[in-house]
Amino acid sequence: MKPKVTMIAWNQNDNYVVTAVNNHLLKVWNSCTGQLLHDLVGHADEVFVLETHPFDCRIMLSAGHDGNIFIWDITKGTKTKHYFNMIEGQGHGAVFDCKFSPDGQHFACTDSHGHLLIFGFGCSRPYEKIPDQMFFHTDYRPLIRDSNNYVLDEQTQQAPHLMPPPFLVDVDGNPHPTKYQRLVPGRENCADEHLIPQLGYVATSDGEVVEQVIGQQTVDQDEPGLEPSILDGMIRQLQLEQDQRTGADQESAPSGPQNGEGTPRRG
């Protein structure tokens, strides 16, 4: 087999370079002389994740399609910690990505089964309030481009960054209870009626029709005693202010060269 490099990473102080090779070895090199210092043995499949520690120049994390996650001391060429991502009844899960937290005390990985694995010190109590399956209802929603080539959400015809915060749903598109919806940034202080999504029927790729979240539940402004969505009102207000500023700039801008000199500015 002809060796091929699948991933490269420098350590924190750039004194070492680690390369992952398709023969399942990790090689540690001196970045100044190019000398090979260590062969790190442990992976049984190709490695596409190499992550350096944010401040400890000795530490490098590797993960691969074999489900193995290693923490290495690259100065000594030794294994510090090892985790095998075994999923009950399904075999191992290939690890696709890993990242350290800024303080270096935790790291998170994602695997081929859609799991988020969080490693660190202490207990897991802060994570117990999070549901097992978490997706945004806008995940995988189709996008289109308008006449100006700007990206819009196909269903709402809005720019994605102007849309209200999404809802949390499970893998089948069923919305989670309101206590979980408050975990979404932008929904922390919303009233209960604004945390209830609007459901609709959506056809899947195989022709099956399922009930899924289709967007923000809106309130009819004509009904007495009910208020419109706060987020929708803020979006409309921002758009109105932007239109007013644009109109004022265009009125104040000169329509042509003055005294035959200069170039007119655009509003």
Automatic annotation (TrEMBL):
Record field: compositional bias (Polar residues): 249-261
UniProt key word Repeat: yes
InterPro entries: Bromo_WD_repeat, WD40/YVTN_repeat-like_dom_sf, WD40_repeat_CS, WD40_repeat_dom_sf, WD40_rpt
Organism lineage string: Eukaryota, Metazoa, Chordata, Craniata, Vertebrata
Species whose genome carries this gene: Sylvietta virens
WD repeats: 1-39, 40-82
Signal peptide limits: none
Keywords annotated in UniProt: Repeat, WD repeat
Protein name: BRWD1 protein
GO terms for biological process, alphabetical: cytoskeleton organization; regulation of cell shape; regulation of transcription by RNA polymerase II
Xref: SMART domains: WD40 (SM00320)
Segments of this protein annotated with the region Disordered: 239-267
Pfam annotation, one family: WD40
Any one GO cellular component localisation term in the record: nucleus
PROSITE patterns assigned: WD_REPEATS_1 (PS00678), WD_REPEATS_2 (PS50082), WD_REPEATS_REGION (PS50294)
Keyword Metal-binding: no
Gene: Brwd1_0
